[in-house]
Structure to design on (229 residues):
């Protein structure tokens, strides 16, 4: 079974600085999708960024980028120029390419942004 | 487009009762998935419905069930509530099933079992 591990329960960053959140996963599949979701205190989960395993190029969405290391099964999220609104729980998630909407989530990392 | 909506937002029940939660997906989305979120277990997949059929189910007891209507709206039901069922229940919708299709989450229903 696929598992997702986020080893940092909490992280903090100074406003305008850069922070990296770690995620590792375990799978025997060669093709899959990885996601980072953000859950602000209001509790609505929002997709931050998505990566297809077959793509070597790291995904980027504005200030958010990933470092996808397939061999190491690592998928870290880098937030540049951190803003107060980035404060939230961040979840790393894995999904197979099969016709299956069962997503496996990590335990989450709570990010605090200091002004 | 309106986002995923869930009703009610908050619910308080007592042990032994049953509860029904509702989820309205984004217009045009046909897949609805349910997740349970607790501090101890994190986010866990409950089940997924597509075209009114349950397509996939997580590792939860039979007390947890659901259904989907022809308009893609979904309900989940928990019977004989236990204290451990207290959680935030999240619903997510997507256009199709699986793959790169993004799941959009609702705000959740906070269930408290006393």
């Amino acid at each position: 079974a696929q598992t997702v591990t986020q080893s940092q329960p909490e992280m903090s960053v100074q406003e305008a600085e850069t922070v990296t959140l770690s995620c590792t996963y375990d799978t025997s599949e060669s093709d899959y999708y990885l996601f980072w979701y953000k859950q602000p205190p209001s509790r609505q989960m929002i997709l931050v960024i998505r990566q297809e395993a077959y793509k070597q190029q790291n995904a980027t969405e504005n200030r958010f980028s990933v470092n996808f290391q397939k061999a190491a099964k690592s998928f870290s999220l880098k937030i540049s120029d951190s803003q107060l609104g980035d404060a939230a729980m961040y979840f790393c998630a894995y999904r197979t390419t099969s016709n299956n909407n069962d997503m496996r989530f990590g335990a989450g990392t709570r990010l605090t942004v200091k002004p | 487009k309106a986002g995923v909506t869930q009703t009610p937002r908050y619910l308080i029940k007592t042990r032994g009762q049953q509860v029904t939660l509702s989820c309205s997906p984004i217009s045009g989305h046909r897949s609805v998935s349910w997740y349970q979120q607790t501090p101890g277990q994190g986010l866990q997949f409950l089940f997924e419905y597509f075209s009114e059929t349950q397509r996939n189910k997580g590792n939860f007891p039979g007390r947890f069930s659901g259904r989907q209507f022809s308009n893609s709206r979904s309900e989940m039901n928990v019977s004989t509530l236990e204290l451990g069922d207290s959680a935030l229940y999240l619903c997510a919708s997507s256009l199709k099933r699986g793959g790169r299709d993004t799941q959009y989450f609702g705000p959740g229903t906070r269930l408290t079992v006393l």
About this structure: Chain B has no helices and eleven strands.
